[in-house]
Structure formats: C-alpha cells, structure tokens
Amino acid sequence: MNKELKKYENIIKELMGSKRFKHSVNVAEMSVSLAKKFGVDQDKAYIAGILHDCQKEADKDIMLKEAKESGYYIDPVELECFKLWHGPAAAYYVKEKLKIEDKDILNAIRFHTVGRADMSALEKIVFLADMVSAERSYPDVEKYREAVMKDLNNGMFLTLRWSILKTAGLGNTIPLCTLEGYNFYAPYKNEDDFVFQK
Asked: Total structural domains in the chain?
C-alpha cells in the first residue's frame, strides 16, 4: 500500500477508539484481498474500507445532520435507528471533508451497513469485508468468510440473510433497501451451502 493511501489511517485514528480503528484496518485489508481476487481496483477498496466507519463514533446530532445532508435517500426505518446513520454520514464526511468525489467509493461507504439491490463490485466487497473482517467472532463466521472468498453474490445472499434473521429475531425493523438487496441476491444462493444443510 503506498504512503499516500496510508494517510487515511492517520485521519481515522483521530476519529475513533482503538477497537474501532483495528476493525477499520481489518476491513480495509479484507477489502483489498477481495478486490485482488475479484479484479476490482485495490486502492479504491482500501480507501472505502478504511473510511467506512469514520463517523461511527461521532456525536449523534452531528451524525444525523450529516446523514440528512449527504444527498442520499434515507429510509424512514434508518432514521429511526441511530446505528444506521453512520453510513450516509460517513459518505458525507468523506466527500465534504476529505474531498473524495468517486461515486463508487461513496456508495460503498453509504451502503456498507444496510446493503441494497444491484450493488457494484466495490460496494459488495466493502459490505462483505465489514461482515467477515478478522475480528468478527459470531457463530459460523469462518464459513461465511470461505463463502465470501468464493462468490460475492452468494456471499451477499448469505450475509444479508444472516443480518435480516438476527435483526428480525431482536424484534427490530429492517430498511427496505436491505430487503430489496436480499431479494436481489437470493437467486445467487448456493443450495449446497452450510445454511441449507440439515
């Protein structure tokens, strides 16, 4: 990774605690690995990965203001859940404060938590890298990592399915874009995957 790109690590280190910083580095590294495997620009993958959570620890009022001013449509369900504000807020921060105009990078950051239908390869990579980064330890995470490294579209199906089941199990609402993403990627599912095994 060239020194010009490494500057982003110094930027985010000032915006978050050590645990979130380590996660961001892990997501950047996983994003680069996936980009290399699937023929996507590795520099873009690093930038989107390292910056994806840059507003996760911002003041809630600032986060909400930035999300609303991001230029992205914000689902009413997202507006009701502050944990989802950091995606569009981070896209706003990256564009307005860091002057990164690349739409694919901005979209990858904006949708890294909620997903959506018909994502670009870079969007999928950052979403999946966030789901299976090195410090993640939920049940079957190793199997999810293996699946993601084989097929981005099946990986999207599996991880969206996991996320929706977890969210619904807690009695929480689900943004429409997440459900649309699940429906879009469901045809790509691998029937032999561990989630279908009895």
From this structure: 1
